[in-house]
Design brief:
The chain contains no helices and 32 strands. It is an all-beta fold. The protein folds into two domains: about 280 residues, 6 Propeller (Neuraminidase); about 80 residues, Immunoglobulin-like, CATH 2.60.40. The chain has a four-stranded antiparallel sheet, with no helix packed on it. A four-stranded antiparallel sheet has the order 5-6-7-8, with no helix packed on it.
């Protein structure tokens, strides 16, 4: 294999592996394909077809879809092209379902559901706000493998708040073959944000919604794990990007910070095996990680590994150890100890605590004052709709 070089800097947007093991990516306004050995095959200029090409998605039986929007006299319309492995157009659609007033489509995520159904989520608007008023809504559309529209859904049930805009969508399929979409509304002036989950049936009808006002994030990529929990990348205006975990009821149950508190730019998630792959750039290089271990706690609840706000010392310990954590405001706080089987061993705290640093001692006994066996134990703290877990080893 020979290396392939380009004499200009390109902004790559999306990459997919095709059924023939080839790789297709978007470099600025050009589709480029490499074969399974990394050798260049072809390049197609697509700016005349799509003024903004944002997403790629491969079909299992061959070919791929290019999704973006296209400038026209009717606005920025949704544009989808299905192409074969050689770059030939199989079909293309230019869509304006809710015009002429709502005419600016901004696709944000793509998901291939059961039966090769292509789902596209995003938002649609007429313009940026005038007099603090936004006519903007989330949308979800679905196409079969032949390009026929299966359903269109404009989510008018939850209009934007004053001075807010919808953005940053990510979608996945539930175990019941329904579609779940996470999105946020962000304030255009203060950059405050609020999170909402939407759930749709296979016909595109809205079947549920969960509002999480305390989660201040913008989202991309959403993966359902084998235990029906969901993982997404959330980047806050005030914090670095994190891996966020939600349970099957779309309640926030924990997060995972990048090792060493590294700042990851443009991270992405890809399902792999029983877990997922994270990929992105860090300050001093390139980040690639496979995560497949989640920590079991009570009631089949799962959270991702540990946050530094919860420490256990000494660790390992015998016969006792101290759990230390900090609170930024007075709040109801719960602190539990679980064994390796996820069984509740000891309730250490279940009360409202003041802000500041707190230290709690565990003497290695359960709620019935029995000495616990040696082994690994998990310390789970819950406060402000957040769950943090740390582990320690009891030695005898």
């Amino acid at each position: 294999m020979e290396d392939t070089y380009f004499d200009e800097d390109y902004n790559t947007r999306g990459i997919v592996e095709l059924s023939d093991r080839g790789i297709v990516t978007i470099m600025d306004d050009t589709l480029v394909k490499f074969d399974g050995h990394g050798d260049f095959e072809w390049a197609i200029y697509i700016n005349q077809s799509l003024s903004s090409s944002q997403y790629l998605h491969a079909y299992p039986d061959g070919g791929f879809a290019v999704i973006g929007n296209n400038s026209s006299t009717a606005g920025y319309l949704l544009k989808i092209m299905r192409m074969d492995n050689d770059g030939n157009i199989v079909w293309q659609r230019e869509c304006n379902y809710w015009g002429p007033f709502l005419d600016t489509y901004r696709p944000s995520d793509v998901f291939m559901g059961s039966g090769n159904v292509l789902h596209i989520a995003g938002n649609i608007a007429n313009a940026w706000p005038i007099d603090d008023r936004i006519e903007e809504y989330p949308f979800l559309v679905a196409f079969d493998e032949y390009g026929d529209t299966l359903f269109t859904k404009l989510v008018t049930e939850f209009p934007c708040l004053p001075k807010y805009s919808y953005g940053y969508y990510a979608i996945a399929e539930t175990s019941a073959k329904e579609i779940v979409m996470i999105s946020n509304q962000f304030n255009l002036f203060s950059h405050e944000a609020t999170c909402r989950f939407f759930q749709f049936d296979s016909f595109g009808q809205l079947t549920g919604s969960v509002h999480l006002p305390e989660i201040d994030n913008q989202y991309h990529d959403l993966i359902r794990l084998n235990n029906d929990n969901y993982v997404t990348i959330g980047g806050s205006y005030s914090d670095d990007e994190l891996l966020l975990c939600f349970n099957s009821e779309f309640q926030y149950i924990g997060h995972y910070q990048w090792p060493g508190n590294s700042i990851i730019s443009n991270p992405r998630l890809f399902p792999h095996g029983n877990g997922f792959i994270t990929i992105g750039h860090i300050l001093d290089g390139f980040w690639l990680s496979y995560i497949n271990t989640l920590i079991p706690v009570a009631n089949d609840d799962f959270v991702l590994p540990f946050e530094k706000n919860l420490t256990v010392s000494p660790n390992p310990f015998n016969p006792s150890t101290t759990i230390e954590f900090s609170l930024t405001k007075p709040i109801l706080t719960e602190l539990f100890v679980y064994n390796i089987k996820g069984q509740l061993v000891k309730t250490l705290i279940n009360q409202r605590l003041q802000s500041g640093i707190h230290k709690v001692n565990w003497d290695g006994k359960d709620d019935f004052n029995n000495l616990c066996a040696s082994g690994i134990y998990f310390f789970k703290i819950k406060y402000n709709n957040k769950t943090v877990v740390q582990k320690a080893t009891l030695l005898k």
